[in-house]
Amino acid sequence: MTTADYTEKIPNNVDLHEDRRLQRALESWQPNFLNWWESMGPRLPTQEVYLRTAVNVGREGWAHFDHVAMRDYRWGIFLAERDRDRRIAFGQHKGEPVWQKVPGEYRADLQRLIVIQGDTEPASVEQQRNLGATAPSLYDLRNLFQVNVEEGRHLWAMVYLLHAYFGREGREEAEELLHRNSGSEDAPRILGAFNEETPDWLSFFMFTYFTDRDGKYQLGTLKESAFDPLSRTCEFMLKEESHHMFVGTTGIDRVVERTVQLMIEHDTDEVGPRGGIPLTVIQKYLNFHYSVSLDLFGSETSTNVANYFTSGLKGRWLEERRRDDHRLTGEAIMVDAVTDEGDIGQTEVAALVGLNTDLRREYIGDCQNGVNRWNKILDSAGLPQRLRLPHVAFNRKVGAFAGIEAAPDGTPISAEEWARRKSGWLPTDLDKTHVRSLMRPVHERGKIAAWIAPPRQGINGKPFDYDYVHLA
């Protein structure tokens, strides 16, 4: 069992006290983090929140629940237990012992991968900072804050790696992670999806379902890394990430469930005037967040990702379960492409350069599971409507489909037709205004907003009407 030392100023299970120089550097970064949290973190004033805090990363359990003041949350540094027999599972170094230090030839690439991952963590906190003011229940408010503090801890995870293994350049990058801000014109976050607004709770649930699910797959590829401290860091982060996706999955469950109740009660699809979110609007939000999240996987082909794989920096999702040579030399894959005639099709490329496509397809299959789940709610109610993932070419800004327009079913269309019809596929200002009009706060124990159904169970065995949040 790897136990966190909570007697330290920075809780950790990496024996930080044994490296005084590193400890001092991180302790000097800590006030900057807290200043960022105060200025860019959750805006709603609270006294205490019922939060989960990591206590160890072993198999015997790793979380402790209690009411804590968020500013006093014990953010720290936690790596999964080390496997001293672990060997590199893929690429040209396959079979060699994993690295405990950064090889000089891979230093720049590893640093870049860590910075990009690290940049997403505070970005989502910034995107969600105003949502507490419109929470549909104390249960949901608590879940929002749990996501927020864990994203803050994930930032700590990447900052530790930058400080511990990348010297002065790493320390400078760690500072920059607090200077960029989501949506800033002067210093935006690195990836486009993390500069989008999250102005309402339907957007939040879609974000935690689709965009945090992208995070799951990106962390999964980094967990395979030959750089063992990065691998162990991501393994632990994935445990926390699962709760974020749970919030999204069950949140959309509950929105669909309430919409179905209103449709049946009033015998109409037009539940907007009855205080609900129409299925057509839920579909538009789904279309937007899914397509934006697909862009996070990058282009269909990438020599950079091929090099990351060959070098051992970044593997595939569930690498060791793959039934191939784990080197992919001579292997091929079909990737999405636009033909010379302008049609949407596929082309064959070397498997190494098609790794982004491989990962995106794993993600798409996972996303479909959620859609199937939401459609079961509709089916159980005897309703014929169904939610659907749009085609991979729909509303894309990165990759093979960035230069074309396509309908949700994948039919290529002209720019003029897109402009004419996109209001039927993506949220309009009117749709957003309606959703925001429903976002009235419900901060009373056991009460919930009228546009969403209550959860089937609470957190950590507590009932829905538990006092999850003590407001200031």
UniProtKB/TrEMBL annotation:
GO cellular component: cytosol
Segments crossing the lipid bilayer: none
Species assigned in the record: Phytohabitans rumicis
Name of the protein described by the UniProt record: Benzoyl-CoA oxygenase subunit B
Superkingdom of source: Bacteria
GO annotation terms (biological process): phenylacetate catabolic process
Gene Ontology molecular-function annotations: oxidoreductase activity
